[in-house]
Amino acid sequence: MNLLVKADPAGKPLVDVTPASAGWTHVGFRAVKLAAGEHEVWQQPGRECCVVILAGKASVQVGDTVWSGLGQRDSVFDEQAPYAVYAPPGLAVTVTADSAAEVAFCSAPSAGNHPPRLITPDSMTRSVRGKGANTRYVTDILPQTEPADGLLVVEVRTPSGHSSSYPPHKHDRDALPEESVLEETYYHRLNPAQGFAFQRVYTDDRRIDQSMAVEDHDVVMVPEGYHPVCVPYGYDSYYLNVMAGPRREWCFRNDPAHEWLLAKP
Do the strands 47-55 and 125-129 form a parallel or antiparallel pair, or are they unpaired? Predict the structure, then answer.
């Protein structure tokens, strides 16, 4: 199975991953670009959605509730967290662009235990992971500490010449608290846009071992295995991660062959 989903820059959507197309159970991901005044409707029975305003401004309606003028960044590479909206299953989600906008729809199975809500930038935890050429900048959009049935959503900016999701780690074994089972998508953006990055997905037994050159708006699917990212000099990387699985807990295992890097001064 090819784990790289190439974007269609002229299409609507830019990229779309469903459980059926991915051959898995939980994660769905869709990214769209909207011109001012355009709208996109999302509704899937039995699935919750986290709408992320990646860039531009948009208004989001969930059922009868409307949040207007969401968005405060021109690019995913701006030094700001995004706005997001959580929507439970059973309610239609309509996103209307107030300006040119890029919007992500992240979804997972849900029993409908939580009401719709606005997720503001100031409610999101921002942190720095790694050190040296492994430094990257993380924003927790919908972490496991916040209400949802299945979804986990996070964005990561990785500077030029750095590695990310590194040392390689995986979350494909039901062995809590050491490790949990989570499917994952990586939605990649590059700055400048003509750049590329590399991502490898591999299992211990190398039953899966794919190394991919990812370009702007591409998605990498991670059904299992380790999944590091490397960014060439001259280009900055952004990716939006969507994770979901049988249990909403992110517990991972580092590749033992590379775990020594964590002790490196």
Answer: unpaired
Specify the DSSP element, H or E, that contains 60. strand 58-62
**pTM of the complete model beyond 0.70:** yes
Per residue in 47-100, pLDDT (tens digit) is 999 999 999 999 999 999 999 999 999 999 999 999 999 999 999 999 999 999
DSSP code of residue 263: G
Residues whose CB is less than 8 angstroms from the CB of residue 124 and which lie 6 or more positions away in sequence, other chains included? 81, 139, 140, 141
pLDDT band at residue 22 using 50, 70 and 90 as cut-offs: very high
CA distance 33 to 106: 15
Contact 93, 62 (CB under 8 A): yes
* 132 three-state secondary structure: helix
Q: Is 149 exposed, middle or buried (0-12, 13-18, 19+ CB in 10 A)?
A: middle
Please tell me whether residue 247 adopts helix, strand or coil conformation.
Answer: coil
d(CA 97, CA 101): 6
Length of the chain: 265
**Residue whose C-alpha is closest to residue 199's, from 237, 233, 234:** 237
Which are the contacts of 207, defined by CB distance < 8 A and separation ≥ 6?
A: none
Contacts for 192-197: CB closer than 8 Å, 24+ residues apart: 192/235, 195/232, 195/234, 195/235, 196/232, 196/235, 197/158, 197/229, 197/230, 197/231, 197/232, 197/235, 197/237
DSSP state of 22: H
Distance CA 23, CA 11 (A): 23
- What's the chain's Rg over C-alpha atoms? 17
- The model's pLDDT over 163-176, given as tens digits with 9 standing for 90+, comes to 999 999 999 999 99
Residues 91, 53, 21, CA angle at the centre, nearest 5°? 65
Determine phi and psi for 37, rounding to 5 degrees: 95, -20
